[in-house]
């Protein structure tokens, strides 16, 4: 009995240890479902200048479906780059939920003895404290953007296609950069300079609701006095953006730092479009009728390929789709649509839909649902005066022949 008691005691001890061990098993972390994407979205100046500092913006984004609770970034540059301070190498970001992103700026120094070319920086990230570091490498251009030319760049001819965007649209933003100089040279403090201009880079930055999807412009060609270059950038408008005017930031590197420029590029968004308004009561008499609608373009710019359709399961329409074509802003167009039906209901719903294009963007909109009234009217008896006269003569007892004869004499 004593041995059995010892065995039983040991069994209970082992059971408690097993239960405690089970209770300490860590649940699967959401970080295992977090996926990070790292990019260098900008560095200024561009290219990085020999013997100067360059600011590098690193973006880290959670593109997975799990939350990362302790995200950190680490920068390890290679020659000719070095951190302004090793204390700034690691940056704790913290929590990044799915589709969230963070941007951190590192400041690097470009060695004064480096040569024109490219240099590499390594960016590491970890998603939880004590976890593994994951590495991404990026090349930064090293050069000199200082020239003795004195040409000055001016921004001209800003345009958008379409002129005014709608939510969900894609399109382009275009503009011209022109050298305002009129002479081939200029003398400053008894020193002659050429008046050429250079656009070494042009970076167009989006704002919330508007993404710039084109690569930044990079070039080193010479723009002579009075000459210009035209640049275009593709943009993507979000579906849930609000109406208004938004300003994209254009940053340009010119002949030197003294000739760098920043401009605000306006982009307009307006969700108003086509309206279809009945100009007569929507009544179908004895199963047939003609409806009349006013089609109005409420958008600030021209819309193309405009067509109107009436949709109902109980009615047949002719034409099935009324093609209007191109409509200027505030233009009004009147259309007529014939309808037929053999049903007996007193009213039926009719859906009015419109197709149109804003630039290259196709839109399909349900503009209204209207109630159509169906009326049945009995056809009345018709007759001419002679028939009425004969009827009266019969009722009065006068021969119809005499009645007709008197009429002829009177004529």
Offer a few descriptive terms:
mainly beta; Immunoglobulin-like; five-stranded mixed beta sheet; 411 residues; 3 domains
Question: How would you describe what is shown here?
Answer:
The protein folds into three domains: 30-143, Immunoglobulin-like (Sandwich), CATH 2.60.40.10; 153-269, Immunoglobulin-like; 274-375, Immunoglobulin-like. Mean pLDDT is 83; it is low at 17-28 and 381-411. The longest helix is centred in the first third of the chain and has 22 residues, at 2-23. The protein is built from three helices and 30 strands. The chain is mainly β. A hairpin with a 7-residue loop joins strand 20 (244-253) and strand 21.
The major sheet is characterized as: 5 strands, mixed
Helix content: 10-25%
| Beta-strand proportion | over 45%
Distance between the termini: 146 Å
Helix- and strand-based class? mainly beta
Number of strands: 30
Q: In order across it, which strands form the biggest sheet?
A: 2-9-8-4-6
Task: Give the number of helices.
Answer: 3
Low-confidence stretches: 17-28, 381-411
Named at the architecture level, the CATH assignment of the largest domain is Sandwich
- The third-level CATH topology of the largest domain is Immunoglobulin-like
SSE layout and pairings?
Layout: H1 2-23, E1 36-44, E2 48-49, E3 53-62, E4 68-77, E5 81-83, E6 90-96, E7 101-110, E8 117-126, E9 134-143, E10 153-161, E11 170-179, E12 185-188, E13 191-194, E14 197-198, E15 201-205, E16 210-212, E17 217-218, E18 222-223, E19 228-237, E20 244-253, E21 261-269, E22 274-278, E23 283-285, E24 288-297, E25 303-311, E26 316-318, E27 321-327, E28 332-340, E29 347-358, E30 361-375, H2 385-396, H3 400-410
């Amino acid at each position: 009995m004593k041995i059995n008691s010892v065995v039983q005691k040991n069994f209970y001890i082992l059971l408690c240890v097993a239960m405690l061990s089970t209770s300490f098993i860590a649940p699967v972390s959401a970080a295992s479902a977090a996926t990070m994407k790292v990019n260098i979205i900008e560095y200024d100046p561009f290219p990085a200048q020999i013997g100067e500092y360059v600011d590098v913006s690193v973006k880290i984004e959670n593109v997975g479906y799990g939350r990362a609770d302790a995200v950190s970034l680490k920068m390890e540059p290679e020659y000719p780059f070095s951190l302004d301070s090793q204390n700034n190498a690691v940056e704790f970001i913290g929590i990044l939920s799915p589709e969230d992103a963070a941007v951190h700026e590192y400041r690097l120094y470009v060695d004064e003895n480096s040569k024109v070319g490219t240099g590499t920086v390594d960016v590491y990230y970890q998603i939880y404290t004590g976890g593994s570091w994951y590495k991404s490498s990026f090349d930064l251009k090293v050069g000199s953007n200082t020239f003795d030319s004195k040409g000055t760049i001016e921004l001209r001819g800003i345009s958008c296609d379409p002129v005014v965007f709608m939510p969900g649209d894609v399109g382009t933003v275009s503009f011209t950069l022109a050298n305002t100089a009129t002479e081939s040279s200029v003398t400053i403090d008894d020193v002659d300079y050429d008046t050429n201009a250079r656009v070494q880079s042009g970076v167009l930055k989006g704002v919330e609701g508007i993404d710039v999807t084109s690569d930044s412009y990079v070039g080193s060609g010479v723009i002579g006095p009075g000459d210009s270059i035209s640049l275009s950038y593709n943009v993507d408008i979000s579906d849930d953006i609000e109406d208004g005017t938004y300003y994209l930031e254009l940053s340009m590197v010119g002949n030197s730092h003294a000739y760098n420029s920043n401009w605000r590029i306006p982009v307009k968004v307006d969700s108003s479009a086509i309206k279809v308004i009945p100009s007569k009561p929507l009544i179908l008499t004895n199963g047939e009728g003609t409806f009349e609608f006013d089609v109005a373009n409420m958008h600030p710019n021209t819309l193309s390929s405009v067509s109107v359709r009436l949709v109902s399961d109980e009615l047949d329409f002719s034409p099935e789709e009324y093609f209007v074509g191109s409509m200027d802003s505030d233009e009004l167009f009147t259309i007529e649509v014939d309808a037929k039906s053999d049903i007996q209901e007193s009213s039926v719903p009719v859906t009015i839909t419109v197709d149109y294009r804003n630039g290259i963007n196709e839109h399909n909109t349900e503009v209204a649902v209207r109630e159509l009234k169906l009326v049945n009217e009995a056809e009345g008896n018709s007759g001419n005066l002679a028939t009425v006269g004969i009827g009266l003569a019969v009722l009065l007892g006068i021969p119809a022949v005499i009645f007709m004869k008197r009429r002829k004499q009177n004529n």
